[in-house]
Amino acid sequence: MMPFSFFQECSHKSSSTTNNSFTFKGGCPPIRPTIRYCKVEVLRSPRLTFEPISSMPALVNPNPPPELLSWTEHPVTTEPLDWAPLAIIDLAKFDQPGGKQELANELKDAVKLWGFWTVINTGISQEQLDRQLDIGYTFFKQPLAEKKKVVCNFSEGNYFGYREPYRLIGKSGVKENMEMLNLPKYTSHYESFPRHDLIEAYKDEIQPFHRLVWDNVIRKLFILFAIILELPEEYFVEKHHYDKPSEDHLRYMIYHPRPAEEDAKTGGQWSPGHTGFGAMTLLFSQSVAALQIRTPNNEWKWVKHVPGGITCNAADTLSFLTKGYIKSTVHRVVRPPADQANLERLGLFYFVRPGDDIPMVPVPSPVLIREGLLSEEEARLGEEQASEAVKGFEYVRARVKNVHNRNARHVQDGKGTHEVFRVKNLEVQDFYA
Ligand SMILES: O=C(O)CCC(=O)C(=O)O
Ligand SMILES: [Fe+2]
Predict the structure, then answer these.
(1) Cα distance between residue 322 and residue 279, in whole Å
(2) 352, CA 20 to 30 Å: which among 11, 63, 177, 284?
(3) Distance (Å, rounded) from C-alpha 131 to C-alpha 69?
(4) What is this structure's pTM?
């Protein structure tokens, strides 16, 4: 008997098809609805339906990947919340004549003042997004033992893998309500990193998606930053390239609702105020309101759902490289409004980190010099001091270790705290109340 393997040719091409829906009849193997098990040239829709046939055991995959559960986006809140006025950056303009310059102008204030903005028209389809959410949701619904097969090694500041919500929040006696899975890039550097069976089974969808986010969104934003800072267009792209080693990861994350009495004990905190650890964070916009940012006036404002959009925030290392010109904004996650407080909140993210060997020295930008953030001498010395400087990998690993290699999480106790985290000359406040 011939085993049915990945990419083995099968007879689907000759099956009956219609324009947009593909229902395979007669002669098809009894495999689950996925495009991964056969090379089918006619496929255009990521969601296929196969009619199960009871015969043809020769083509049965002995270990089919589990069926995906289906994640459904919740309705938006009807409560009038104090929304943050985030700029909307329309990436459809990027390749139009003068488009990059126009977008750079629009993004400039957002990165200087708010550190948060939303991109739309990313070229990532709703179907692609839905599939990722389904994969993430299915992952979290697996038994804990399965999820723990690949876990984050926080003693080394390594964020790749599954993070179990086992820690307590301060001294409240309340446990964390969030779990996550961080997937490293699909490049040769991470080939030997172990991946969960479910993630392996859906590799043919996750791998291109991982890169698509970088190509379609991250690369463009880095070009816009370079234009804003009057640097060569590829300046930041090269320092954060997908093909070079970095701690970048795609993340599935789920928050589980807590009883109101438990939330009351931690001031409604789901994730304490913090700045991003790496270069930039992309959050595929979701309907459950919970993310808040701290405004330039130190008020907390809610981040509003923009269907099909991606909420982006600049993080610590971009702020280091630009001497604070690009703002690493404080944000937190809180109990959602009453009409959403009992809902699971599933998130899909891409966390951008600096290249592993990128020195954390200021970029030689004429804008930083004009703004008085950088002296001519510092700009020149920066290059010379690069070999001595903290590198991207060193900073990010140390930061992750400092925040996560603890038995209890920070708590917002309303008293404020100024615990500072340092690596050589680099310094950030650990968390914010
Ligand atoms: O869940 C969110 O909306 C944001 C989470 C976050 O800030 C983080 O994981 O760094
Ligand atoms: Fe964050």
Answers:
(1) 11
(2) 177
(3) 10
(4) 0.85
191 is written with which tokens? Answer: 């080939």
Question: What is the SS3 assignment for 70?
Answer: coil
Mutate which of 180, 249, 252, 253 for ligand 1 pocket (most atoms within 8 A of beta carbon):
253
Is the pLDDT at 226 greater than 50? The verdict is yes
397 lines ligand 1 (CB under 6 A): no
CA of 100 to the centre of ligand 1 (A): 28
Two tokens at 9? Answer: 């040719």
At residue 184, the 3 state secondary structure works out as strand
- Here the tokens at position 142 are 């697996």
The rounded distance, in Å, linking the Cα atoms of 402 and 324 is 22
If phi over 0 gives left and psi between -120 and 50 gives alpha, with beta otherwise, what is residue 247? alpha
Using CA atoms, how far apart are residues 255 and 344, in angstroms rounded to an integer? Answer: 6
User: 294 forms bridges with which residues in the sheet?
Assistant: 300
- DSSP per-residue string spanning 148-167: TTSB-BGGGTB--EEE----
State the average pLDDT over residues 143-152: 97
